[in-house]
Design goal:
The protein contains twelve helices and 16 strands. The protein is α/β, with parallel strands linked by helices and 440 residues long. The protein has two domains: 279 residues, FAD/NAD(P)-binding domain (3-Layer(bba) Sandwich), CATH 3.50.50; 144 residues, Elongation Factor Tu (Ef-tu), domain 3 (Beta Barrel), CATH 2.40.30.260. Helix 1 packs parallel to helix 10, helix 2 runs parallel beside helix 10 and helix 2 packs parallel to helix 12.
């Protein structure tokens, strides 16, 4: 049987359906629009861009720019549509929303291998299936997914602390230590004296916050993952008895306990990324950069991910999904898009590409397609399937998740990113065959 199902005609779902069709599988694509809309959707067209019209940075020395180039090499429909509908946006790739969605919709509707069925899906269809229903998956289908994956594996609220590049942390101002020196010195500590703490505290409590909507205003949810800026407003010393408590920490420069301390914890085994412990936040991204830049050692921090707090249906993917985006304990069921723990338009597209290819390959009787983690597509797949973070959170494409360079690269960060990009493009061309469809 060479038929697969794809549920959801957003960017990930359309990419999955297109790639599966291109490989020769017959596809049934389910989309609840125009019969039913989520609060975020307005257009009956497929691949609707509900937030920004920007697909972010274009240059390959930026992680998402590299991801876009990889997708171009492997023949992505979404990237084809983006390039056809491009509008001027400086160093970013931005698109005309309507032209973009119209292009994708036309290509999908006129594909002879794709059958479209309209209406809400409340049960996972029988057979090989890709679920690509996005962060606002309906309650009925969410309940079905929770039953299949296990209720504890499905999250409905994304409350994530910022993640910074390890190499951008000024270790002249910071030091490794665990509280009371218990076990390995696993945390980077950013100590503050009283003056530094008060400057940070005043900036944090006065900083601009992003708007919250609907679900995010639920006070019970908010109390369970309180933003650091809300906690701060409960009193000047609240943070010093919470995420910034200095107890059990000794500053090696003074030999004393600091007035306050910010701790950073490694996000991966390679220790290329560190999250700011306990700093879930709803500040705007520019304010996060400004205010958290007041933390000693983070003045020039490179943010791989800013803190977020929003409605986001996503899976606890590590251990649940493989690097083919397929469910380990239910062969033939794949997930794609933000539900898998990738964050962003292009990242969702990348997951749809891999899930669609692998669903088709399974239907046609071929082995899974796994890209190496030296590519951004492969690195994202590895992150969602094997992340060792105890508190898995959705992630954008970034150079912290790609396989690290073993040799020394002179010339600073840009030269290193150029090396990453050259290596990834070379690898993906070698893996799939430049200018040819993916091999079966």
């Amino acid at each position: 049987m060479s038929r697969i199902n794809v549920v959801g005609a957003g960017l990930a779902g359309c990419e999955a359906a297109y790639q599966a069709s291109k490989l020769g599988a017959e596809v049934t694509l389910y989309e609840m629009k125009p019969e039913k809309y989520t609060p975020a959707h307005k257009s009956p067209l497929f691949a609707e861009l509900v937030c920004s019209n920007s697909l972010r940075a274009a240059r390959v020395t930026n992680a998402v720019g590299l991801l876009k180039e990889e997708l171009r090499i492997v023949g992505s429909l979404i990237m084809e549509a983006a390039d056809k509908s491009r509008v001027e946006a400086g160093g970013a790739l931005a698109v005309d929303r309507n032209i973009f969605s119209e292009y994708v919709t036309d290509r999908i509707k006129n594909d002879p291998n794709i059958e479209i069925k309209s209406g809400e899906v409340t049960k996972i269809p029988d057979g090989i299936t890709v679920i690509a229903t996005g962060p606002l998956t309906s309650d009925a289908l969410s309940a079905e997914i929770a039953e299949v994956t296990g209720a504890k594996q499905l999250h409905f609220f994304d409350a994530a602390a910022p993640i910074v590049s390890a190499e951008s942390i000024d270790m002249e101002k910071c030091f490794y230590q665990s509280r009371y020196d218990k076990g390995e010195a696993a945390y980077i500590n950013c100590p503050m004296d009283k003056e530094q703490y008060l400057a940070f505290y005043n900036a944090l409590t006065a900083a601009e916050r992003a708007d919250l909507h609907g679900f995010e205003k639920d006070p019970k949810v908010f109390e369970g993952c309180m933003p650091v800026e809300v906690m701060a407003k409960r009193g000047e010393d609240t943070l010093r008895f919470g995420p910034m408590k200095p107890v059990g920490i000794t500053d090696p420069k003074t030999g004393k306990e600091p007035y306050a301390v910010v701790q950073l914890r490694a996000e991966n085994n390679e220790k290329t990324m560190f999250n700011i412990v306990g700093f879930q936040t709803n500040l705007t991204f520019p304010e996060q950069r400004r205010v958290f830049g007041l933390i000693p050692g983070l003045e020039n921090a490179e943010f791989y991910r800013f803190g977020v707090m929003h409605r986001n249906t996503y899976l606890q993917s590590p251990g649940l999904l493989g690097a083919d985006y397929g469910m380990i304990n239910r062969p033939g069921l794949y997930f794609a898009g933000q539900m898998t723990g990738v964050e962003g338009y292009v990242e969702s597209t990348g997951s749809g590409f891999i899930a669609g290819v692998n669903a088709a390959r399974r239907a046609l009787g071929f082995d899974p397609f796994i890209l190496p983690d030296t590519t951004m597509l492969g690195a994202m797949a590895k992150y969602i399937s094997t992340s060792d973070s105890k508190d898995f959170q959705p992630m954008n494409a970034n150079f912290g998740i790609i396989a690290p360079i073993t040799e020394k690269i002179r010339g600073g960060k840009i030269k290193r990113y150029e090396y990453y990009a050259e290596r990834a493009i070379r690898e993906i061309k070698n893996f799939v065959g430049e200018g040819s469809p993916l091999p079966l």
